[in-house]
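Protocol step 4 of 6.
Sequence for Helix-turn-helix conjugative transposon-like domain-containing protein ([Clostridium] asparagiforme DSM 15981) entered exactly as in the expression construct, tag removed. Do not edit the line below.
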Amino acid sequence: MKQPTFNGRVLLPMDAIEAARAGDPLAVERVLRYYEGYINKLCTRTLYDKDGLPHIGIDEYMKHRLQAKLTEAIVVKK
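Step 5 output, structure tokens:
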């Protein structure tokens, strides 16, 4: 059976989502890895080094905040 895709990308299986909602840490990690590229894109900023020169990079603080919010939204509170 062919796995479902969206825009050429294999979708996250429903059993992984259900396990993450139940609090399985490995499943939560799998969901975070699945969305890592999207989160990195959201967190890409122009950062400045100590000499004031700009470069494109990932805002790690924002990335950790988004990962925490996603984890909080996934896990069902009992």
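Step 6, annotate. Residues 28 and 71 are 7 Å apart (CA to CA).
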